[in-house]
Design goal:
Layout (H helix, E strand, L loop, with lengths): L3 E2 L5 E2 L1 H7 L6 H6 L2 H9 L18 E7 L2 E8 L2 E7 H6 L1 H5 L8 E2 L5 E2 L8 E5 L3 H7 L8 E5 L4 E2 L4 E4 L6 E2 L2 E7 L8 H4 L3 E8 L2 E2 H6 L13 E9 H4 L6 E6 L2 E7 L7 H9 L9 E3 L21 E6 L3 E9 L2
Parallel strand pairs: 8-19, 10-16, 11-21
Antiparallel strand pairs: 1-2, 3-4, 3-7, 3-16, 4-5, 5-6, 8-9, 12-15, 13-14, 13-19, 14-16, 17-18, 17-20, 20-21
Length: 332
């Protein structure tokens, strides 16, 4: 079958092409002719304007958020280079489409970019408290009957390499390594059996917490949302590339010393169960974030308690994703 490239990048059969070009052809006669006659017919056809078809790529990829001409964009990562795919808002408006289109922007060194969070500004950032048994034990808490969900704000998100100031009202700044799930589809009343199909990918997350504020009242909002207290990155690895999210090593280092070291199969409430629980109460949208809890080893429960201070470097590393680094500074 002969195909023509038409303005809307549709592939049309020969008969459809003649209809579009308004050419009246008797195909019974045409079929009886020699091939040379058919070639001569095509030679006389007007050539329609063409547009290059999007290049189809494999869905598995690593991506990040960065600024291009002042606009937050999704960049596809290849080694130490990144290429713009589309704006962040465009990406999460049609994840399936953009996952199958090759980036068109120039290749830029990752070291030279200005990073932004890899999710839209409308993103919910939901976190699980007390989701690892050893962390429950070190805090002296009881195992929750349901996923213990609290929120961090989009405004609290920060990027790989960013600075985190110590709050002037609370010097008990602590670390919590977590694996974050990025949602890739609208999810409402989603069953546990269907939940993983709505996961776009995974990334590192640090649930930086001001323990003083966290414990002064029963509400955690301020204690869980100091400035820049939700580092995320350095890349998002799509679910098909990441594979089974369980059994991945997850750890925290402060100034090079390991403070937390666990594996993601130690979660009490697994990802699918958590999504089912959340979406029975509130819908999830593409770009929403679920931070899945932290293993034991937080600074607040060390002997003596140890907290982040100006000059510290804190790193979160997850097997198969990479290392997320933040620098602690004095406020102001």
């Amino acid at each position: 079958m002969v195909e023509l490239a038409l303005p809307n990048a549709f592939c049309l059969s020969l008969g459809q092409a003649f209809q579009v070009l308004a050419i009246d052809i008797d195909f019974d006669v045409l079929r009886q002719r020699e091939p040379s006659f058919m070639h001569s017919v095509f030679a006389q056809l007007p050539v329609p304007p063409t547009r290059a078809l999007p290049t189809v790529v494999e869905c598995d990829m690593r991506f990040l958020g960065f600024e291009v001409d002042g606009v937050a964009a999704i960049g596809v990562v290849n080694d130490e280079q990144v290429r713009r795919l589309c704006s962040i808002d465009e990406f999460y408006a049609d994840v399936d489409r953009w996952q199958n289109i090759a980036p068109s922007g120039p290749s830029v060194a990752i070291a030279d970019i200005v990073r932004v969070p890899p999710v839209p500004q409308t993103a919910k950032v939901l976190c699980l408290g007390l989701n690892y048994a050893a962390h429950i034990s070190e805090t002296g808490s009881e195992r929750p009957d349901f996923p213990n969900i609290f929120a961090k704000w989009y405004a609290s998100l920060s990027n790989h390499g960013d600075q985190i100031p110590v709050p002037s009202g609370d010097n008990r700044l602590d670390w919590e390594c977590e694996m974050a799930v990025i949602i890739g589809a609208p999810l409402t009343d989603t069953t546990e059996a269907d939940a993983m199909a709505g996961v776009l990918g995974y990334t590192c997350f640090n649930d930086i917490s001001a323990r003083g504020y966290q414990r002064r009242t029963k509400q955690w909002a301020i204690g869980k949302n100091p400035d820049n207290s939700a580092p995320i990155g350095p890349v998002v690895v799509t679910a098909d590339e990441f594979g089974d999210p369980y059994g991945k090593r997850i750890l925290t280092r402060v100034n090079g010393d390991v403070r937390q070291d666990g594996t993601t199969d130690m979660m009490l409430f697994k990802i699918a169960e958590t999504i089912e629980y959340i979406t029975a109460g509130t819908s999830l949208r593409p770009g929403d974030v679920i931070a899945t809890g932290t293993p034991s080893g937080v600074g607040d429960k060390m002997d003596p308690p140890t907290y982040l201070t100006a000059g510290d470097t804190v790193e979160i590393e997850i097997e198969g994703i990479g290392t997320l680094q933040s620098r602690i500074v004095a406020r102001g």
